[in-house]
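lol so apparently i was supposed to do this last week
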Amino acid sequence: MDYPDFPEMQELMICADSISPVGEVREEALVRYRHQDFPILSFRFGSTDPSAPTLLFVAGVHGLEKIGTHVVTSFLKSFIRLAQWDHTLIHLLETCRILFYPLVNPIGMLLNSRANGHGVDLMRNAPIDAEERTLPLVGGHRIGNWLPWYRGELDRPMELEAMTLCDFVRREVFPSRTSLILDVHSGFGLVDRVWFPYASSHRYYPNAPRILALKKLLDQSYPHHVYIIEPQHHAYTTHGDLWDYLSLEHQAAHLPGTMIPLTMEMGSWHWVKKNPKQLFSSFGIFNPVLPHRIKRAERRHFFLFDFLVKAIASGDRWAELQGQKQIFLEKKSRQLWYSPQR
Ligand SMILES: [Zn+2]
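anyway here it is w/ zinc ion bound
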């Protein structure tokens, strides 16, 4: 299929056409808009063992935040090339799985809308309520789909896009003994943030010691990295977060593996500050408009993506914690992220 008026989908089609034989593409679902169907695609590289360490890149949950899909698709294109010749990567893929899900919400992206085609914010759509007070509207609401951050109707099934992503994670990520997910967004702010659960409560996240171990590796290896790593509730709490929902399901099922979903929120004010005209377009607030800034966003974040690829192959260094190390990191993570004085 050709999508001449939809450059993001067109780029994914190019990836789909060029991925064989180093990886596989799969159509997870079709979403329909005005008599045209748009595929939701996943791309898979590496081991066929479902319990193998697994890294998943996700983007395009919010259709307006196109830069996330651009950066992840661009990384996917490089990855397809590298997987053809880079012995280090080929060797890594014998024991690990690397997955891409670059466009969760095709209709939203087509329409330059945060929500999906039904006006539902997919990151507020899971059947889970916040335990703490949320910001009015932003935290998710059921007033109506004419307002942003709409959760969808009470007791209705999840939207197709949200359900499809959850089914994909259950099938491809839940069986893994160690998994990381990076869901790429852009939003207000000057800094780039990496959030971990929970979005729905201030409770202690049981994988916080592992995240602290991973953060230490990042801090030591790339001391000038730009990311603030913190639980999402430091920014705001929300209803209906898909990663909270999946994390709680994973915990309740007592699966033997560790699954850590991370959300990257690229600070968009860099782009607005440097190009104030962008303030007058809703698209511009969430995306760099000038091509050299898009390239810069790619360069800025690719090293983190590479770091995560290395980290998933070295889970013994951060995921498999025991004894004194576990106790120490739990104490430190509580001080760093959960103490009232932080
Ligand atoms: Zn977003």
